[in-house]
C-alpha cells in the first residue's frame, strides 16, 4: 500500500531570494550562514513517509522548524522546494481551490492553544469544522455529539467553554478535529499547555482513540517523553533538519549522533523498552529447561529487571508461541539504566556526566 503522507526533500526559507538560499543549503550551507544575510532556513531537506494508521511524531526544541514543517503538510505554507504527497496527490502541484477542499475535508489540525468560541456551546464548538464543510445542522450536531462522547465529554454538549477545565477544552478541540472524519490529523503541541497529569491523560485518550479510529496522525512536540509514548515513528529535528527518524527504541538504543544522545539522557528508558528491544537473539540450539521464570518479547523493562533480580542467569525471552527467541543478561539491564549507549563502558574509562561529576561504571 502507498504511504498516506510523504514529504520529499522539503525546504522552507523565509526572507530574500529563497531559491538561492535553497541552492546554498543543498551545497551544504547551514542555518547560521544564511542567517547572516537575514534569511531563515526554517526547514531544510526534510523527507519522511507516514503510513496509514500511524502516529508520526516530530520532536525538536523550540525554533527547530516543527510548526513550519507541519504547515507545509496541509498546504498552509507553500514549500520553497520539495513535494508533499497525500494519498498520492501532490499538494504542492494542485490549485488553491482544490487545496482548500483537501484541507477542509481530509485534514484536521489541532493547535496548542485551542481557541474555542466563548459564546457557542461545547456542541457547536465541536461541530465547527463540519459547519465550515457545509454539513447540515442535524447531521453535524449528531457527529459532533459522537466525537465529544469519544473524547469523554458526553453530557457537556450544552455547556459553555468557560465551564470546562483546560484539559476538557483541549478535548473539545480534539473532538472538533475528529468530528470532521478527516483521515489525517495534524497536532501541533496540542497537549503542551496542559498540566502534566492532564497531559498524560490526554496522551492515553489519544492512544485509546487511535486503537479504534486508526487515523493517520502527525504529532508535534518538544517533549521527548511524550514523543516516545505516542510515536510509532519519531523524527528528531535540529536547526531545521531531521537528524534521525526511527522508532522510540531505535532512538533510545541507537542515537544517530551526539545531539540525539544528549537529548535522550533524561528519558525514562524503563517506560519505553521491552524485552524484544534489549535481548540477545537466540541462536538455535539450547532450550529453556530449568523451568524458572521467563519473559516474553513484550515484557516491559521494569518487569524484566524484577525477573532478572530473582535469577542467577540471563532471562530467557519467549515469543507468543512459547518458543525461545532470546536472552537478556543482567548487566545489559543495569547498563541501559546507567549508560546512554546501552553498553557498559570499560572500567578504566569513567565518563563525565552532564553536570561535571565523574560517575562510576555499572
Ligand atoms: N513566517 C515566518 N517568517 C520568518 N521566520 C519564520 C516564520 N515562521 C517561522 N520562522 C522562523 O523559522 C524557524 C522555525 O520556526 P518554527 O517552525 O515555528 O519552529 P518550532 O515550531 O519548532 O518552534 C524559527 O527560527 C522561526 O523564527
Ligand atoms: Mg511550533
Automatic annotation (TrEMBL):
Domain of life (superkingdom): Bacteria
Pfam families found in the cross-reference section: ABC_tran
Occurrences of domain ABC transporter (ranges): 5-264
GO molecular function: ATP binding; ATP hydrolysis activity
Compositional bias of kind Basic and acidic residues: 349-362
GO cellular component, one term: membrane
GO terms classed as biological process: glycine betaine transport; response to osmotic stress
Record Gene3D superfamilies: P-loop containing nucleotide triphosphate hydrolases
The keyword Ubl conjugation is assigned to this record: no
InterPro entries associated with the record: AAA+_ATPase, ABC_osmolyte_uptake_ATP-bind, ABC_transporter-like_ATP-bd, ABC_transporter-like_CS, Gly-betaine_transp_ATP-bd, P-loop_NTPase
Region span, Disordered: 338-362
Family: Belongs to the ABC transporter superfamily.
Descriptive protein name: Glycine/betaine ABC transporter ATP-binding protein
Source organism of the structure: Streptomyces caeruleatus
Amino acid at each position: 500500500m502507498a504511504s498516506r503522507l510523504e514529504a520529499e526533500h522539503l525546504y522552507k526559507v523565509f526572507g530574500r531570494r529563497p531559491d538561492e538560499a535553497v541552492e546554498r543549503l543543498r551545497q551544504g550551507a547551514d542555518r547560521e550562514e544564511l542567517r547572516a544575510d537575514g534569511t531563515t532556513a526554517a526547514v531544510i531537506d526534510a523527507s519522511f513517509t507516514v503510513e496509514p494508521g500511524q502516529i508520526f511524531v516530530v520532536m525538536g526544541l523550540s525554533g527547530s522548524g516543527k510548526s513550519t514543517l507541519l504547515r507545509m503538510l496541509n498546504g498552509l505554507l507553500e514549500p520553497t522546494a520539495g513535494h508533499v504527497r497525500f494519498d498520492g496527490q501532490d499538494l504542492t502541484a494542485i490549485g488553491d481551490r482544490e487545496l482548500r477542499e483537501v484541507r477542509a475535508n481530509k485534514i484536521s489540525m489541532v493547535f496548542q492553544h485551542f481557541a474555542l468560541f466563548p459564546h457557542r456551546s461545547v456542541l457547536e464548538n465541536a461541530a465547527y469544522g463540519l459547519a465550515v464543510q457545509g454539513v447540515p445542522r442535524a447531521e453535524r450536531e449528531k457527529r459532533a455529539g459522537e466525537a465529544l462522547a469519544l473524547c469523554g465529554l458526553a453530557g457537556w454538549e450544552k455547556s459553555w467553554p468557560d465551564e470546562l477545565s483546560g484539559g476538557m477544552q483541549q478535548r473539545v478541540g480534539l473532538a472538533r478535529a475528529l468530528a470532521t472524519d478527516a483521515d489525517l490529523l495534524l497536532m501541533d503541541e496540542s497537549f503542551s499547555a496542559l498540566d502534566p497529569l492532564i497531559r498524560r491523560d490526554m496522551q492515553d485518550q489519544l492512544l485509546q482513540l487511535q486503537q479504534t479510529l486508526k487515523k493517520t496522525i502527525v504529532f508535534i512536540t518538544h517533549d521527548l517523553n511524550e514523543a516516545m509514548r505516542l510515536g510509532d515513528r519519531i523524527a528528531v529535528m535540529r536547526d531545521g533538519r531531521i537528524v534521525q527518524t526511527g522508532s522510540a527504541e531505535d532512538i533510545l538504543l541507537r542515537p544517530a549522533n551526539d545531539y540525539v544522545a544528549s537529548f535522550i539522557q533524561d528519558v525514562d528508558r524503563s517506560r519505553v523498552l521491552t524485552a524484544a528491544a534489549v535481548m540477545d537473539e537466540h541462536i538455535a540450539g539450547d532450550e529453556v529447561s530449568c523451568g524458572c521464570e521467563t519473559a516474553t518479547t513484550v515484557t516491559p523493562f521494569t518487569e524484566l529487571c524484577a525477573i532478572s533480580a530473582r535469577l542467577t542467569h540471563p532471562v530467557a525471552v519467549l515469543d507468543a508461541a512459547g518458543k525461545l527467541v532470546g536472552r537478556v543478561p543482567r548487566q545489559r539491564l543495569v547498563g541501559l539504566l546507567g549508560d546512554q549507549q546501552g553498553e557498559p563502558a570499560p572500567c578504566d574509562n569513567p565518563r563525565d556526566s552532564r553536570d561535571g561529576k565523574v560517575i562510576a561504571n555499572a
